[in-house]
């Protein structure tokens, strides 16, 4: 059995789902902060149709686990809060059929806004090992008709057990009201957090992370799985500084080399042109996203980023890739190849991961050593143990744990449709306490 969610709780893998409708109304929530010797706050609310996604280079991203760049909110108000302190942040809400469910738990605390999934840190009494437990409410899943998505996520988690850069599933189980994923506990912080703190990385550091992510994506492709939501928030660092790719909620199974899919989903800053055009797309959508993440690691913002989401989409669709001077020819060549607007000409369109591996930018990488973690990461998070929360926003360590993580009193179990989650439960071969 588990201890009652130990006194720590961790934002392990972030479930950030995005289903972006073709026609939508934009909702804009805007927050700035400037630092001065005095503080001045004012708030005003008025209707607005402009949408803003995130900060520019002088107003670097939002605090790691506080406000979020895209959240699904069914409102039509514009809130602007301005506080004089030296950080300048913008929060903008894209009010289309898009949902950014950020969830975090830490130190007997939970970021559990309404019905969103949350994660607890638990210790198994049998061996004193720590795990992250992701908890989801069945009633919400059934209401949104997302049973198939949850089962697909479970299936992808099972298949990813053998790869070093994909989060591992140890158990999955259910109660009449809830579903539980018991996952690897990873507390080196999101890549997003480290980027927010450091603005950008050196090319060697960016190469290391991009190589480990590419290895994970290549493995998923070998299993005919397209990831579809690669972004810094879904890339964690472990205690040694290696990449751990997480959140498989938007993965699509059954996509073979010549297959396509057409669901309009993803995160606005990282959407490939073919997705924006609502055209069928293939595995190369993941290589576009890798290019966008690499670009962000090098230049501090995603390619074509604009506060005006329509302008950003126009850039993704029509504008040439902006490459500022001071970067190597190798990384520029890779970015041009990955961020090719025509998916048929994109790097990876023919030989998939093999083309990425063989690019000159990755020539310093020994891929076998990389896979077996024989390459020392360029950055060590200096995690001192499971209780070390230096890479977790304290906002989420202060919140209270719900009175129960297993029961929802108002939920009628008969509505859960017992057959909806048949086959969900799982125990890995290495774990046999259940």
UniProtKB/TrEMBL annotation:
One GO MF term: protein serine/threonine kinase activity
Region (Disordered), start-end ranges: 27-54, 76-96
Keywords, ordered alphabetically: ATP-binding, Kinase, Nucleotide-binding, Phosphoprotein, Serine/threonine-protein kinase, Transferase
Domain of life: Eukaryota
Xref: PROSITE patterns: AGC_KINASE_CTER, PROTEIN_KINASE_DOM, PROTEIN_KINASE_ST
Gene name of the record: SGK2
Protein name, UniProt field: Serum/glucocorticoid regulated kinase 2
SUPFAM superfamilies membership: Protein kinase-like (PK-like) (SSF56112)
PANTHER family in the record: RIBOSOMAL PROTEIN S6 KINASE (PTHR24351)
Domain Protein kinase: start-end pairs: 105-362
Record Pfam families: Pkinase, Pkinase_C
InterPro entries given in the database record: AGC-kinase_C, Kinase-like_dom_sf, Pkinase_C, Prot_kinase_dom, Ser/Thr_kinase_AS
């Amino acid at each position: 059995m588990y201890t009652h969610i130990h006194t720590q709780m961790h934002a392990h893998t972030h479930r950030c789902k995005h289903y972006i409708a073709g026609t939508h109304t934009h909702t804009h929530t805007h927050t700035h902060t400037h630092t001065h010797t005095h503080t001045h706050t004012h708030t005003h609310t008025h209707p607005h149709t402009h949408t803003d996604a995130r900060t520019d280079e002088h107003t670097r991203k939002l605090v790691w686990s506080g406000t979020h760049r895209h959240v699904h909110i069914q409102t039509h108000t514009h809130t602007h809060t301005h506080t004089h302190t030296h950080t300048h942040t913008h929060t903008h809400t894209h009010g289309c059929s898009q949902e950014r469910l950020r969830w975090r738990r830490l130190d007997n605390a939970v970021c559990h806004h309404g019905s969103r999934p949350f994660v607890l840190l638990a210790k198994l009494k049998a061996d004193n090992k720590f795990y992250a437990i992701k908890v989801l409410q069945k009633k919400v899943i059934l209401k949104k008709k997302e049973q198939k998505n949850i089962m697909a996520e479970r299936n992808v988690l099972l298949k990813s057990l053998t790869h070093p850069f994909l989060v591992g599933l140890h158990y999955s189980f259910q109660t009449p009201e809830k579903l539980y994923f018991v996952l690897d506990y990873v507390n080196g912080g999101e890549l997003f957090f480290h980027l927010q703190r450091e603005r950008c990385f050196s090319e060697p550091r960016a190469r290391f992370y991009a190589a480990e992510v590419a290895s994970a994506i290549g493995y998923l492709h070998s299993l005919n799985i397209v990831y579809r939501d690669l972004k810094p928030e879904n890339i964690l660092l472990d205690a040694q500084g290696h990449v751990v790719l997480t959140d498989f909620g938007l993965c699509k199974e059954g996509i073979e080399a010549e297959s396509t899919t057409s669901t309009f989903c993803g995160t606005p800053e990282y959407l490939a042109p073919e997705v924006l055009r609502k055209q069928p797309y293939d595995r190369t959508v993941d290589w576009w996203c890798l290019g966008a993440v690499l670009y962000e690691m090098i230049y501090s913002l995603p390619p074509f980023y604009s506060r005006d989401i329509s302008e950003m989409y126009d850039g993704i669709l029509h504008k040439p890739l902006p490459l500022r001077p001071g970067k190597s020819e190798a990384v520029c060549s890779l970015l041009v190849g990955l961020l090719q607007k025509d998916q048929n000409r994109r790097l990876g369109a023919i030989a998939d991961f093999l083309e990425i591996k063989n690019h000159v930018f990755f020539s310093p990488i020994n891929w076998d050593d990389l896979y077996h973690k024989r390459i020392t990461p360029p950055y060590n998070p200096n995690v001192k143990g499971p209780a070390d929360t230096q890479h977790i926003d304290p906002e989420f360590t202060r919140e209270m744990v719900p009175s129960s993580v297993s029961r929802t009193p108002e939920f009628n179990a008969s509505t859960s449709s017992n057959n909806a989650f048949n086959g969900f439960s799982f125990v890995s071969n290495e774990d046999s306490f259940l």
